Amino acid sequence: MAGEKPPLYAGVVVEAPVTKVFHYRISDAILDSLAPGDRVEVPFGKRSIRGVVVSISPIPPIAPNLIKEISIAPAGAERIPGDILELARWAAKYYRTGWGTVLAAAVPAGVKRGSGKRSAREIRPLAVLDALETEAERTARRAPKQAECLRALVQWFRERPGGRLFSDTDGLPVAASGVVLHQIAKKGLISFTVPEGGMTKVVDSGDRPRLSSEQQSAVDEIAAAMDGGTFASFLLHGATGSGKTEVYMRLIGKTVAAGRGALVLVPEISLTPQTVARFEARFGHLAVLHSHLSDGERAEHWRRLRNGELKLAVGARSALFAPLADLGLVIVDEEHERTYKQDNDPRYHARDLGLVRASLAGAVAVLGSATPSLESWVNCLSGKHRLAAMPSRVGGARPPEVAVVDLRREWADVKQPALISRELGRSLKECLARREQAILFLNRRGFHTIVRCAACGDALECPDCDVALTHHRREALMRCGYCGRTFSVPEHCPTCGAKVLRFGGAGTERVEDVLGSLFPKARLLRMDSDSMSAKDAHRNALASFARGEYDILLGTQMVAKGLDFPNVTLVGVLMADAALGLSDFRASERTFQLVTQVIGRAGRAEKPGLAVVQAFQPEHPAVRFAVAQNYAGFVETELPDRRRRGYPPFGRMARLVFSGEKRGAVEEEARHAGAAAESTLAPGLRVLGPAPCEIERLQKLHRRHLILFAPNHVALSEWLERAGLKPGEERGVKTTLDIDPVSMQ
Ligand code: ADP
Ligand code: ZN
Fold first, then answer.
1. Per-chain mean pLDDT for the chain
2. Single residue among 395, 415, 432 that ends a domain in this structure
3. Residue 600 alpha carbon, nearest atom of ligand 1
4. Are 625 and 594 contained in the same domain?
5. pTM
6. CB contact set of 212 (below 8 Å; sequence gap of 6+)
């Protein structure tokens, strides 16, 4: 029996490593309801598979009798908006992966299933916070949940004066269930109500400082572009402490006031609690998208962004795909951060896709940093981005003074390896005497970073990873920094059996010990991924540092990111050039960025700041220009070098990694790929390898890589196509393809 309506065909992309779009005839039952963006289940070979409809057309793409019929559409799942489909298509093509693969990463699990729905209420204290605290003490015994909830509310409002808290705000304590909040509301201590005027009202509250003249001209210039209504991109090059966040917030305020959506990307939500808290305090209703959300919460955010109830989304990398309606502004904070690059499939760069998303939406993109990536800087020089510069600090704060300590001389003078130089020791003592705070930075974890046998010379390595193990004395174990496997501390060398193991190198744990003996009275907070593994550990630790409960904050790169504490007047960089030896062409750039950022934590308010930078090669440009806080100087030495060697930003790279349990098979596969690349060479193209990866073995897998260089993306992409190089898995060897790689390990 023929249907009355002419048949329609759906193009479907599936969650499988295939790049093709498959076509299916739409069954009559769902003919009227199915639309692009819908999730479906389709026959695929002998089984059925999940997919997303990307097109609907009356024209059959191939002989209609070969087309299978699509019938099942999972109930309750959300429709993916057209611009997200388009962005995913763009990303799949650029990164040479499946459209369905990108969509699978773009849409959270809860949305795919269509779970969870509740309406948000606003929680407001009706008494002074001290009263809430007293009540918490009073009820601690009888109603521990209420007490816990009260204490959490007090902390939340203390950290965000004037902030607006909603029942769906992330980071709300587990104890703050609706029932408990109602009980507290009954006591008259808080109100817990659905705000008037529905949920669509975006709040723009909180104190707004008077903008500095540099902030004002940045805001004016970017706002003018927003009025233009077409895509434009800006690099906001603002010194540390120049007040970039305030500029973002003014632009967001303007965007949401115009009824449009704003997207803010930050490097890592859990590492930037201060920045997130500022957005929360200013804009009551926003979606903070981070990894600790439940599926239901995530689905709820997604739905409300999609229907325009929420107009502001803040999140890390994957928030890029937040389904904001009518997007007007995309902000990428600390755009130079490498965490924006996803290190598994799809291997996209959120900054770059953020620009694409803005351009597809006709929105304005703002990339902010004190130390822009060379990629963005060159895009600025070529006129792709416009530059908004804020070279000075706000509020009359001056750039910190910087003193350099040459560790070669220091070690020779004191006749032993010194982690804390005499100069840094003196400055710490003075800082502590003034009751001010210090931040110390060392990018190495553990107690000892290397354990070597004095007889045979072998260093202790992870048997799975070919990486030196670090010694953690407090836990009395050895740990692999890559796979996390732990081992007991051996007495004998596992290679030759001699009992002469030498422990060397220093990580944060050892510095903690040294500081303990130098300054026994100082309250020390160590912050690295060993000490900060619990969910809110990082946020809570920073909050107590802010309250002045610690004198010294010691940590790895965690302490380099965006921290803003007015009482920090001293910064110590213990080994500025620790990462310069790496065989990564960005080692210099990264060192410059890290050291500049850490120095930038000192003296951000009225009190002047000092940074003491210790290094073995203080004359290295990466250290020298960071010390001078001279971005232009660094760029002027680094760019010609990159150009000469054909490295990004002047050329483009693709990296293929081959990994597997059998070394022979891995080498074979890599050789094969290398030959395919060689035989399809053209002028301007260059191959490196195949060669062992820097980490030759990782979690028991042998690893080889092949690096392709081309003058631009199109040439690179065409070459990969010609050579037939693509990701996959064959004969026990996995091949991954990374376009514009960031990690070279
Ligand atoms: P950065 O550019 O390093 O990201 P922040 O955005 O963290 O700087 O701002 C540094 C500090 O200056 C913050 O404490 C912020 O509240 C404050 N600030 C920002 N703008 C102003 C202003 N116009 N007047 C006074 N203080 C400001
Ligand atoms: Zn390991």
1. 85
2. 395
3. 3
4. yes
5. 0.85
6. 242, 243, 390, 392, 394, 395
